[in-house]
Amino acid sequence: MSDYILELRNITKTFPGVKALDNVQFHLQRGEVHALMGENGAGKSTFIKIITGVLQPNSGEMFLDGKKVDFASPNDAQAAGIAAIYQHVTCYPDLSVTENIFMGHEKVGAFGRLQWSGMHEEAEGLLRRLDATFSPKALMSSLSVAQQQIVEIAKAFSQNARIIIMDEPTAALTKRESEDLYRVTEQLRDEGVSIIFISHRFEDMYRVASRVTVFRDSQYIGSWNVKDIEPKDMIIAMVGREITQLFPEKKHEIGKEIFRVENLGKAGYFADIDFTLHAGEVLGFTGLVGAGRSELFQSIFGIMPYDRGRIFVEEREVAMRSPGESMRAGVAYLPEDRQKQGLVLSWSIGRNISLPSLSSNFSRGWIREKEEMRRSHSLSERLTVKALSVHDPVSSLSGGNQQKVVVAKLLNANAKILILDEPTKGVDIGAKSAMYGIIDDLAKNGYGIILISSEMPEVLGMCDRVIVMKGGRITAEFDRGNASQESILEAAMANRRIG
Ligand SMILES: Nc1ncnc2c1ncn2[C@@H]1O[C@H](COP(=O)(O)OP(=O)(O)OP(=O)(O)O)[C@@H](O)[C@H]1O
Ligand SMILES: [Mg+2]
Q1: If pLDDT is split at 50, 70 and 90, which confidence band does 177 have?
Q2: Which of 257, 241, 368 is nearest to 311 (CA)?
Q3: pLDDT, average across residues 456-472
């Protein structure tokens, strides 16, 4: 028997004009959690799709238990015991948990009748094994992303998967939910399942994986024992250079007040919210899970009405009854849920980026397409979007590069106040540092930026001022000078206002 449950040799995959994988290799041991890391567009998702039979390589070989296999379709891979939980959850929202688990391999009784009670029962057992508390009869759409992932894992279980691949499973999860996922991952590992875990978060890798393989620019760079590799060397492997300074140095002046919120409240969500934002300022909002930050800013942006309080843009009161109204007032918003955030996948990168500014150019009578494309091009260059040209469709981009396009689109809007909800989630470390540079530049140019973030280094490294929320209320406010990880955490857990 081979030492490896899965081995890939010299895999190459090309798309028209792009080599997504160039002669890569990979070794997976039985019962290990193996992290696969690399920048946005490095080829990770493509590689996974080859293992799961969704894509076929142009050349290269795959061995399962030492025997050569060729998967012509996902069914072949499934039959061989390989299951994947994809980067973008691919469930059927209008069906029940049980239906989702057994989709494609339903239990059928005599006369071809579906055996619902048997399936519900089995689903219940699978969910219990994963410590899930929701019902197998619940609608998929009623679950959180974390719960939907548990359903996907249950589905893998129900197919007796021996290899489970998770493509950025923690990108949309809170810290607490990530902890739960690590636990389930370890449980699977202890039951003998081999796991490939893709992530951009070093903490995921150090927490849950024992081996790591790095791809860069479609190529295999190397594999290491996780305990033997330091973050600094991981960055060099992933990015090809050292990133010595992730955060820009802050040297610019903070200007006049451009945004003010007074006594804002919404029953059941948040209360007594008062803050100001100045030109040139990066104002952080942080807190633990469920602190109410996303809800607060959804209200401020007019997505969900607030029921008391006032909002002022440059001393002028605005009602913010809809996103359109907020945008007209000069406020732009990057929501946490990037996938619902209106990228038109079949459109080109350039057309997506220029969407928010099109109407202003229309008013001059015609779209100045060349200029739009030039702007789009420079924005996507700065954000390091990996594509051949801005004329490529967004659908051809890797997950992280699609997110960069969403950010570019936002930066192209005519707004002076930017609300960014977790802007660096799912983007690689090189792009992260580029994004920090852009935020800093915008601030220098008089923009006011609200940065909602759960990542402590990001909050401490980027913000001029930090507001901490808990249970829908502000519990503390710190200036750059006196904010520390400890003081912020203390405020995030506090029962009353401090600081
Ligand atoms: N269907 C496609 N058509 C054309 N190019 C594609 C297609 N799918 C992927 N690519 C290209 O292949 C390369 C690898 O993409 P892939 O999705 O594998 O990256 P990734 O490592 O998963 O990145 P991320 O971290 O952003 O998810 C990218 O340059 C991408 O643009
Ligand atoms: Mg990917």
Answers
A1: confident
A2: 257
A3: 92
